[in-house]
């Protein structure tokens, strides 16, 4: 286990609008507000055509080859995530959501591009004083949180 400590900073209540791409809007907002690190929750709905990562093709193979799922209709959503800078200092979100329609639920990472249907309510808690960042991991093939 690796860790660092953080303090709570500002808290933002955000409403994303119909058609916006979630990770793009939140990362842009974080850059505009000089938010380096944050914890995030979201609730609302996602539109058809949204793409989510739903796991690796094979559990223990490297580099990881992600499986993708395309939402075929509007889905209710609840999600949680984090935001930390990448190696160039740009805010990078990592958020997983459970998306449901009728009696079916899909859970996955939104990084491939999920689109808001009508609205998405987001609460973002700024984290201060942590050196945490995301750094490339060549064995896995994606950026990993480095808390220290």
Form type: globular
Helix content: under 10%
What strand line-up does the widest sheet have?
Answer: 1-8-2-5-6-7
* N/C terminus separation: 11 Å
Question: Any descriptors?
Answer:
10 strands, 7% helix, two-stranded antiparallel sheet, 148 residues, 1 helix, 6-stranded antiparallel beta sheet, mainly beta
Structural notes for this entry:
This protein has 148 residues and is mainly beta. The chain contains one helix and ten strands, in the order E-H-E-E-E-E-E-E-E-E-E. The chain is globular, with a radius of gyration of 15 Å. It has a six-stranded antiparallel β-sheet. The chain has a two-stranded antiparallel sheet with strand order 3-4. Strands 9-10 form a two-stranded antiparallel sheet. The model has no long low-confidence stretch (mean pLDDT 96).
List the SSEs and their pairings.
Layout: E1 7-17, H1 22-32, E2 38-46, E3 51-56, E4 66-70, E5 75-85, E6 91-101, E7 104-109, E8 116-128, E9 133-137, E10 142-146
Antiparallel strand pairs: 1-8, 2-5, 2-8, 3-4, 5-6, 6-7, 9-10
């Amino acid at each position: 286990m690796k860790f660092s400590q953080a303090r709570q900073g500002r808290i933002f209540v955000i409403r994303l609008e119909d058609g916006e791409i979630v990770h793009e809007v939140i990362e842009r907002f974080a850059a505009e507000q000089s938010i380096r690190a944050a914890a995030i929750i979201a609730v609302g709905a996602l539109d058809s055509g949204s793409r989510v990562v739903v796991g690796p093709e094979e559990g223990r193979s490297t580099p990881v080859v992600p499986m993708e799922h395309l939402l075929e209709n509007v889905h209710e959503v609840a999600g949680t995530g984090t935001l930390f800078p990448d190696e160039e200092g740009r805010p990078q979100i990592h958020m997983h959501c459970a998306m449901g329609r009728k009696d079916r639920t899909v859970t996955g990472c939104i990084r491939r591009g999920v689109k808001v249907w009508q609205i998405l309510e987001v609460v973002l808690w700024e984290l201060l004083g942590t050196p945490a960042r995301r750094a490339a991991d060549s064995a896995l093939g994606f950026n990993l949180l480095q808390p220290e």
